[in-house]
Amino acid sequence: MSPFTQGGRRACWGRRRSVGWGNLRVTRQSVTPRRARPPPPSCRPDDAQHRAVRALLLLQITYFRPPHCRGTLADAAVLDATRRTFKGKHEALVRDAILDYTRPANRSHHGLAQAALQATQAMGNLDPVNLRRTDRQIGANPICYNGLTLWLFAGGFVSKRWLAGPGNKIDANNADQAFGTGVVVPPDQWDSIPIGYLWTIQRRNDPTTCHWGLSLGDGKAAASNNTPGSPFLMLTIDSGDTKCGTFAFPEMCAVLNSDFKYGHSSKDPPSAPDANIVVKKIDPATSTALF
Predict the structure, then answer these.
(1) Could you state, in order of their start, the residue ranges of all structural domains in the chain?
(2) Rounded to an integer, what distance in angstroms lies between the CA atom of residue 291 and that of residue 149?
(3) What is the C-alpha separation between 91 and 25, in angstroms, rounded?
(4) What pLDDT, on the 0 to 100 scale, is given for residue 169?
(5) Residue 178 and residue 132: Cα distance in Å, rounded?
(6) CATH 2.60.40 for the 107-291 domain, yes or no
(7) How many helices and strands in the chain, by DSSP H and E?
(8) Which range among 21-25, 215-219, 258-262 shows the weakest confidence by mean pLDDT?
(9) pTM, full prediction
(10) What would the pLDDT profile of 69-78 be if each residue is shown by its tens digit?
């Protein structure tokens, strides 16, 4: 019997076609190819980058909103800007922004002093949410806290958690709490404050009248919003200007000691180099106020 007939009848060929040879039967069936399944979410090339951006947004929400932050700096517009900024960027760049919420282990006093020499541009706006450690602008009209804040961040001694908290609340009334309690430095040691140490010059018995900056070592210092001089002495700026510059630290002390704002009330020069001021130093490596 022909394999194409069964019981004298021609086999009917439809969607399913059967051909028999004794005990062997072959079935032919048209097959529609299946669409390939997408890889699970954990295997998608952009999934790690997407999760990193979400983590960055959560950090902004956590630290740049109350109660950690004085105000809501990470509002909806800021979060949308973050999404646009990091959309399509490599995951490593997003992770670098996340690491700004920590302090690098390789921070050093010399690195902090180098940051003070590089970040000196008195322009722009000091935006703590979007600030990066490579930024150089301390603001168009900086006060002394602005320069020190940027240098501490650029040098790795503070994180964005500090910028959002104590770093976002600094004024003359709480600068000691934000930067750390200082150790009094006598006049004969003003030119030997170690490199990378913070310093503050305060009016005697009135710490709210103060100036803050960073020691560059060898009697040199850097600060922003510097007093240009007093009725008795003008400050010599070595580099930069009064908005942000470097100078001899003992000379700055002499200027403020003879300034009426700092308590000098005589028409004659002060009788002692510390007659009206108190000088303190803070080691950023041991200050528990910085994190």
Answers:
(1) 45-99, 107-291
(2) 12
(3) 57
(4) 85
(5) 20
(6) no
(7) 8, 11
(8) 21-25
(9) 0.83
(10) 999 999 999 9
